[in-house]
Amino acid sequence: MARVVLLRHGESQWNLENRFTGWVDVPLSERGIQEARNAGEKLRGFTFDRAFTSVLMRANETLRLALETIGQTALPIQKDKALNERMYGDLQGLNKAETAKKYGDEQVKIWRRSYDVRPPGGESLKDTAERVLPYYEKTIKPHLLKGETILIAAHGNSLRALVMELEQLSREQVLELNIPTGAPLLYELDGGGKVRSHRYL
User: Is 88 annotated among the ligand-binding residues?
Assistant: First the structure.
């Protein structure tokens, strides 16, 4: 039986400041560092065969701290921008509350939570899924079909796209999905890559 753990990075400095982050490479906050270590504690007892992460430091640091905590630092790790957070375009760096005042709560909610509406200059969740899912199918899933145990450290929206695929969620269902920072989400898969069970650790 294959297992894959999805781990959203710990709180970043811009999460703390309530800013749109996207592809801007910001570090973890102090709380985020602790969340990454706590995630590692929850992963004790797992032996991972390999790990995948985005190219952004907040995901890389979360992965490093979690693996340090469980003493598995020699793991093969593959970094790819396909797992990067959704790119928020012109909104990147803006405070979310100030953006809502400028454009209206409803418009910002549409940009953040709709499936296929792009923020100005940015990606929709649909766009994000269109780079995450082919990467999963081509690069990650073959290891799961061999029965490996995989850790993926990434971001709220790239992981939402992956959960949508794993759980076969509708567009409406995925809009309500929120993945907390630093909370490992375990999926157990059958020999064909279908989900048998999932739970937060």
Answer: yes
